[in-house]
Amino acid sequence: MVWEDKTEAKFRKLISKIPVFHRHITESVVIREAETNAKERNSDRVEEKDVVAAFFSDVPSPFYSMMLRLLEQNGFDYKAYGFPKNK
What we know:
Blueprint: E1 2-3, H1 5-16, H2 20-40, E2 45-46, H3 48-57, H4 64-73
Parallel strand pairs: 1-2
Helix pairs in contact: 2-3
């Protein structure tokens, strides 16, 4: 699936900052979820909102604060998409 250029660049930069031990699994899961999110919107390309939703879909609680920090540091405006959702 095609990704918006800017979104993909931000995602690649963010992934490079994740500890090596967790990097591959995070990348795989987020790519899969982001592409699923785009398909569910009937879109043929992944946008920032798809990536943000993917990160929030299944993050283990010990990594939650790190995820928020990395999203912010890499220009993902998760609040614009209604995250974090109230539980």
